[in-house]
Predict the 3D structure of the following.
Amino acid sequence: MLKLFKFLKPYWWQVLILVLFTAAQVWTTLRLPALMANIINDGIVPGDTDYIWQTGLKMMGLAAISAVASLVSSYFSARIGTSYARDIRNAIFTKIINLNVLDIRDFSTASLLTRTTNDVNQVQMTTIMILSMMLRSPLFCIISIIMAIQTAPDMSWIIVVGAVAILGSVILIMSLVIPKFKIFQNFVDRITLLTRENLTGLRVIRAFNNEELEKKKFEKANDALTKLLIYIDRILELQNPLINIIFNGTTLLCSWIGISLLTKDFAYLGNMTAFAQYVTHVMMSFLMMSILFVSLPRANVSAGRINAVLAKKSKIIFPSKTNGVPTKIPSVEFKNVSFSYPGASEKVLDDISFTARAGETTAFIGSTGSGKSTLINLVPRFYETTDGDILVNGVSIKDYAKTDLISRIGFVPQRGMLFAGTVESNIKFGAPNASDLQMHKAAEIAQAKNFIEKLPDKYKSHIAQGGTNVSGGQKQRLSIARAICKNPEIYIFDDSFSALDMKTDKKLREALKPVTSNAVVLTVAQRVSSIKDAEQIVVLNNGKIVGKGKHLELLCKCQVYQEIVKSQLSDSEYDLELKLARKVVHA
């Protein structure tokens, strides 16, 4: 947890106030037993009523000061703790959104959710306990021991016996529960993972009638977590009876020894009463510290998990400013690019070279797993090339500042991703300063205008998280509109037309052509019919380029492309297409 204490720096003055008021509370509280002893010895025994009243008023004043100091210190400990937790959550979230795709894979999504919520809450609660107890309890303990020894030295050994007994019980409990805390956090991760997985995949689960299977998986994980929690709670519950036995035993011992001393000297009554109160403070201090020491290991596990995220260094480093002068005419060039995932023995892409120019569409086609999506994900540096280089407008993407590179790209993922908000906020997501006219134009080009106009509030209509209240085709069209509204130099479509019918697909591409006349278009496609008019088609097979050219050229000379076309056409249609291709190419 020490590494996380750097987040307390902005609140040093509040910590200082907390320390001062805690010290005031301790001093005023520990003055009360001594004054009580004085009332008994110098007021009640000799029958001095005036002295009793004077000292009693002092005690009331000190009690009021102690109460105010306690309220102020409690307020600041809670305020500091919650602000501290807020800053940690912000730091985790900032770190996560700045990590690249490969870095995120080192942590599961469920684990990141748990670390941002449950782990931070655990650290927050323990920090509040530290702020409220770490200073107060030791001060109470040390000063109470000193004053108890001064008040009744003959009984001071009782404190040692009580302290040793409490420490022994705390050490026993900690040795039993500390190893279980890390396992507990892993079980919470598992529960979060299963919950998230089932909520997002609910339709598939119901479609395959696998509710019982998923229920059993969840129950198994839940039972394991429950058994562990029962074990931890049983051990921790031992703390209360053990402390009560020690506390009551110490009180009984004080009374027994004190009464035996009173038979020799009745004036010892005040000292015995004060000593009993000091012993109570000592025992309570040890009790509070024991609770803190039991919580610390659990919080330390959570802090370690948080630090693992904060200490994660991105595998992709962007320079602070762009090195080089990009050309004004957009282009994307792959120069002998290869890529393999970390730890993988085989390359996903191998020696890829091509140039995509402004005003042209470069399409990528190939069988599943041929590397199409991976290839276009290299352009915005979601992944880093293993070998070779990628140039955007004549400058290596490794020399671009992050903002400069991403501002040039309009990316439409394979699965249309929408965010909770409105239609307007989603379309303007990449261009928040875009005008309504630009938004309407983008929606019209993306063939989304018709269904938007039918919504109750049109562009102000609500979009649920993940776009669950719109269809797959509507999500894709809104995602495409979002890229168009940004007006980028490079459009990247990762099979972004798959949910559209052929008629809508054709209309959208026709409307998109004038908009992209001065931009580079990179598109991944499965349907040959959607890329027939592309100026350049790159055919991929097992991560390698096996064909490059226009539709009719590839149909004549690329066997892999021929097989793809043949799989999508009837025999008669394929023969006619092949005949036309040979006629045009050989003309």
Observations:
- The chain has four domains: 2-310, 324-408+488-545, 415-487, 550-587.
- The chain has 20 helices and twelve strands.
- Residues 324-408+488-545 form a domain with the Rossmann fold fold (CATH 3.40.50.300).
- The CA atoms of residues 9 and 15 lie 9 Å apart.
